[in-house]
Design brief:
91 residues, mainly alpha, globular, transmembrane helix, GlsB/YeaQ/YmgE family stress response membrane protein, membrane, transmembrane, Transgly_assoc
Length: 91
C-alpha cells in the first residue's frame, strides 16, 4: 500500500513536470491524481495482458503518466471554471 502511494506521488510529480505551464495543485491533489493515473495505467496494462493491475511494468507506468497528465489538465480546467464562476458571482 505504501509503495502504491509512493508510485502515485512519483507519477503525479512526473505528470506535472511533463504538462506545460504552471499548475495550481496541492501536494495532496498531485498525489490523488497520480494515484488515479496509476490505477488507470494498471487497468489498461492488465487489459492488454502485460501484468496484474498492481504490478509495476513499463507499459503500465507510461500509461499511468499519460493518464495523470490528462487528469491534471481536467483538474485545471475544472478549477479554472470554478474561479471564473466565483469572480462573476462577486461582481
Amino acid at each position: 500500500m505504501i509503495g502504491f502511494i509512493v508510485a502515485g506521488l512519483v507519477i503525479g510529480a512526473l505528470a506535472r513536470l511533463i504538462k506545460p505551464g504552471r499548475q495550481n495543485l496541492s501536494l495532496i491533489a498531485t498525489l490523488l491524481l497520480g494515484l488515479a493515473g496509476s490505477v488507470i495505467g494498471g487497468v489498461i496494462a492488465s487489459a492488454l495482458g502485460t501484468g496484474d493491475i498492481f504490478e509495476l511494468n513499463v507499459l503500465g507506468f507510461i500509461v499511468a503518466v499519460i493518464a495523470a497528465v490528462l487528469l491534471i489538465g481536467v483538474a485545471e480546467s475544472l478549477s479554472g471554471r470554478n474561479k471564473a464562476a466565483r469572480n462573476r458571482a462577486v461582481r
